[in-house]
Design a protein that fits this description.
Oligomer: single chain
Distance between the termini: 79 Å
Shape: flat
Mean pLDDT: 81
Strand order of the largest sheet: 3-6-7-8
Strand content: 5-15%
Radius of gyration: 33 Å
Largest sheet: 4 strands, antiparallel
């Protein structure tokens, strides 16, 4: 299952998964003229192959080959079964009654069922081929791209014109991103930080898509709830259409600032305290009864109000005369002595520190 086209990353991961499933490596790897493997220029194929694809084949001891330009039927033994797979998959989707899936893994299970039925008659020939496979290398080839990104003040990074949210502890730091065809893995130095689903979009100007995890942003948003009104990715902060519709009704009620404070607190409760379904049911019922307030929400879920800023500490200023005894040759009496000096120090709030003792000779 490929996300975002036939990239080299997708080719590398799919090929290595297939070889691992077979438990061995063939001696030749036959492809069409896909751009992830070759530049498709006239001339020698050895010079036309991309360096990354050449390194992948060398890692597994594969001899790469491809069909000639404009002679697609040379790969007919592959293209014909591929057509059968697409027709069987289409029939499965018709019997299912829908092409919509909640999770990619659910679609992957359907594909595995189709391939299993298609490969069943070929099991004997497959077992015969296993005897001639070469052994797998000890390690997989890299099936990702390495990128670096700077975390913005909004706790987001931009990768291939897509905005992703990351934990706020990374703000201002440079992170390393392993870009797979279906996910991103973020590292700070050599430490794993988080894994994000990869998003794709269409658009030539500005970000193509957004991938926002509310858990990354909710604490900062709670500190400044009015930011919800002007957030560029406002729509992506809400878990589903029901929450978005409720937010639109709140905005239409009049006070936008109060609506923002209430909605941000509700999202905070849903992320940190209860579930999204439970909080939304409470909001809808309270709105129907006309009892929906910020304090009512906090009391219902026992959420303490947002902490206010701590008062500035009061630090008493000491007297500058207390530094006089540090000057070479200055008499100790310059800053006072006895009870008067102690009273002066106590009044200034300074704590006298002992001087380092001189190193003894010998």
């Amino acid at each position: 299952m490929i996300h975002g086209g036939e990239s080299f990353v997708a080719l590398s991961e799919g090929l290595q998964n297939a070889l691992a499933a077979c438990g061995g490596v063939t001696r030749e790897l036959r492809t069409d003229r896909l751009s992830a493997a070759s530049r498709n220029r006239d001339g020698s194929y050895a010079l036309d192959i991309t360096p990354r694809y050449q390194a992948l084949c060398a890692h597994y001891g594969l001899t790469p080959s491809r069909n000639n330009r404009g002679v697609a039927h040379e790969n007919g033994i592959v293209e014909a079964p591929h057509g059968h797979v697409k027709r069987r998959l289409e029939q499965k989707l018709l019997l299912r009654g829908s092409c919509d899936f909640d999770e990619p893994a659910e679609y992957g299970e359907l594909l595995a069922e189709v391939f299993s039925a298609l490969n069943a008659p070929r099991q004997r020939r497959y077992e015969q081929e296993l005897e001639h496979l070469m052994g797998l290398p000890a390690f997989r080839f890299a099936d990702y791209e390495l990128l670096t990104a700077r975390v913005r003040s909004t706790s987001t990074i931009e990768v291939r014109q897509v905005i992703y949210s990351v934990p706020p502890t990374l703000i201002g730091r440079q992170v390393t991103v392993r870009l797979h065809h279906d996910r991103l893995i973020v590292y700070l130095g050599s430490d794993w930080v988080c894994q994000l689903p990869r998003a794709y979009g269409t658009g030539s100007h500005g970000p193509r898509a957004w991938c926002i995890d509310l858990e990354h942003l909710i604490d900062g948003l709670r500190a400044k709830p009015r930011a919800l009104l002007h957030c560029r990715y406002q729509r992506h902060l809400f878990p589903d259409q029901h929450w978005w519709n409720f937010w639109q009704r709140l905005l239409a009620s009049g006070d936008r600032d109060a609506a923002a404070r209430l909605m941000v607190e509700a999202l905070y409760v849903a992320v940190r305290v209860a579930s999204f379904a439970l909080v939304l049911a409470f909001l809808q019922q309270a709105q129907q009864r006309q009892t929906l307030t910020l304090s009512h929400l906090q009391q219902r879920f026992r959420v303490p109000p947002r902490r206010t800023a701590l008062p500035d500490p009061v630090i008493p200023q000491h007297l500058l005369a207390s530094y006089d005894h540090l000057l070479p040759g200055a008499p100790l009496s310059s800053c006072g002595s006895g009870a008067a000096a102690a009273a002066q120090t106590a009044q200034a709030g300074a704590v006298p520190q002992p001087l380092a003792a001189a190193r003894s000779a010998g």
